[in-house]
Sequence to fold (121 residues):
Amino acid sequence: MEAQGKYTLRRVAGGVAHFARVGVVVKREGVEDLQVDADTSEIWLNAARRGIKEALAAMADDRDWVLASFVGTVADTSADDAWLAAVMAVLSALEVEAALIFENGWVVVLPSGRRLLSSTG
Fold:
């Protein structure tokens, strides 16, 4: 079975709506990073890719994962939301449960107690 994970962020935090949906897969022959249309923000995609790398580093997983899918909305998606959805998608794929809190930005607390912070967290 192909290693893959998905996560959809749908929350209101700090009085603001947050939304992002990310899918990740382990890269294999024939699988490339997500190809998107011109309307998708590169800022969101770069943040999601950063989230993938940070989650993998925190979990000591050295496989090459790629962004397989991304959905965001202009009204409800920020770079931090894209980062968070990517982190949580990787953790989902690895079957790691983590706590999610909002403290002036997203904070993911891993079972080890280690914290991953969004750029504003």
Q: What stands out?
A: The longest strand covers residues 16-26. Residues 4-96 form a domain with the Ribosomal Protein S5; domain 2 fold (CATH 3.30.230.10). The mean pLDDT is 89.
